[in-house]
Amino acid sequence: MTRENDSKDGGVCVAINGLCRSFGDQEVLRDVNLTVHPGEIFVIMGPSGSGKSVLLKHVIGLEAPDAGEVRIDGKPAIAEGVRDHCRMAMVFQGGALFNSLTLAENLGLYLREHQLKPEPDIERIIDEKLALVNLTEARDKLPAELSGGMRKRAAIARALVIEPQLLLYDEPTSELDPLMAATVGREIVNLQRRHSVTSIVVSHDRDLAFGIAHRIALIRDGRILCIGRPAEIRANGNLEVTEFLSANFKHEPKSIEEK
Amino acid sequence: MFDQIFEIGNASLFMACLLSLFIGGVLALQTGPVMSDRGVTSFIGGMVGLAMCKELGPVMMAVLIAGRIGSAIAAEIGSMRAYQEIDALRTMNINPIHYLVLPRLIAICVALPLLVVFSTLIGWMGGALVVVINPAINLSYTGYINSLGDMVALGDILNGLIKSIVFALTIGLVSCHQGMETIGGPRGVGRSVTKAVVNSIALILVFDYFLTRIMINL
C-alpha cells in the first residue's frame, strides 16, 4: 500500500508574500514577507502576542489571510488538494492530542483514517515513533494521564507518523525540562538531516532557536523586524532586535554551525 | 457509531422510562375522571395512546435528548475546538465533519426514534396503570386497551416517528454547530452547551407546531 498523495520526498519551499491578517480592529500580521527554503530549519521568534502562532496557522492553511498569500512549492496553502502534493504536520503548543483516544490510537489515527498501511505496519510505526520520543511505556495511556512534557513529545511523535515534508512546531519546548527541550531540539535537527524536512519553528526559547536554526526571523507587532543567520541576527544593530535578544539572556547560545 | 448509538440510548433509557410512565399516568389521571363524568370513559385509552405517540413521546424524548446528549455533544466538540484538536484533524487532512459530526448525527437519528417507540409503549402502560388503580375512572384494563387499539393507527405511530427524526436532526445539527463554533476556553464551552440546549428545545417546539400542521392535513 502506498501513500495517498503523489508528493515527492524531501522538504518543500514556503513563500509568504504580503501577508496581512486582522481580528476585529487588531492587526495581527502586517505585510509579512519571507521565504523558507526546502530542507531549512527556520525559527520565528518574538514576544507573546506578536503574531507568531497566527503566522504558522496561515502556513498550514488553518487560517485564510485578509491580503497576501502563502505558497507551498508554488501552490496556495489554502487551496484544496495542497496536502495531496505535500505532507504537512504541525506540533501544537498544547499538544492537541485527542483526549478520548489512547496515545497509540492518537498516533495511528492519520494512517487508519486514510487507510495508508495494513494494521501490522501501523502498529510497527506507532511503536517506532513512541520509542523515538521515549514514550513506549505510555502506549495505552490516555492524554489526560500524561504530563505536559509527555503530551508534547507525543504530539511530536504523532506529527512524525505523517512523515512530513513540512513540519511546523508551535513552541515545541514549552512545558519541557531543559534535558527534554535539548532532546526535542536534537530531534528537529535530526529530522532535517535525515529527511531534509522543511521545519518552521515558533519559539520563545532562544537557546533552542540559536541552537537549531539555519535562519531566524524576529517578529514584533505582526511585522518582521529582521531575518538572517543566527550570527547575523546577533550582529544586528537594530535597537528593537538587541533589546529582544538581551532580555533575560542566561548565556550566549551557540548556533548549530558554530557547534 | 454503534458505540454512540448505544451510549445515547443507554444513557437516556432510565430517564425515558421514568418520564414516559408518569406522563402517561398523569394524562389518564387528569382526563379520566372528567371523561368518566361525561360518559366518554371508553375514549381514555385512545386519548392517552394518541397523545403519547403523536405528541408527548416525540417531544418529551427530544427535550430529554437535547438536555442530556445535545449538551454532551456540544461540550465534547467545543472542548476539541478549544484545545485545537479540530485544528489537528484538519492538519491531518481529516475532515472534522466526517469524523466528528456525521457519526453523532447518524447515532442520534437512530437512537431517538427507538427511544420514542419505547417511551410511547411505557406511556401507554402508565396510563393503563392509573386507569386500573384509580376508582374515579370507571374503566377496566381491557376497556383501556380496546379503546387504545381502536383509536391509534399505524399512521399515528409513524407520525411520531417522523417528528422524532426531524427533532433528532435538529438536536444533532444545533449541538454540533455550537460545538464547532466554540470560541475561547472553558467559558466558551459553557456558552456553547447552553446555546445548544436552549436553541434545540426552542426549535423542537417550533418544528413540532409546523409538523403537526402539515401532518394533520395529510
Index terms:
heterodimer; A: 259 residues; alpha/beta; 9 helices; 35% helix; globular; disordered N terminus; B: 218 residues
Description:
The complex is a heterodimer of chains A (259) and B (218). Chain A is α/β, with parallel strands linked by helices. Chain A has a domain at 1-86 and 214-259: Rossmann fold (3-Layer(aba) Sandwich). Chain A contains nine helices and ten strands. In chain A, the strands form two sheets. A six-stranded mixed β-sheet of chain A has the order 6-7-8-3-9-10, with helices on both faces. In chain A, a hairpin with a 2-residue loop joins strand 9 (215-220) and strand 10. In chain A, helix 3 (103-113) runs parallel beside helix 5 and helix 4 (119-132) crosses helix 5. Chain A is globular and about 55 Å long. Chain B is mainly alpha-helical. Chain B has one domain. In chain B, 87% of the residues lie in helices and 0% in strands. Chain B has seven helices and no strands. In chain B, helix 4 packs across helix 6. The longest helix of chain B is centred in the first third of the chain and has 39 residues, at 44-82. Chain B is elongated, with a radius of gyration of 20 Å. The model of chain B has no long low-confidence stretch (mean pLDDT 92).
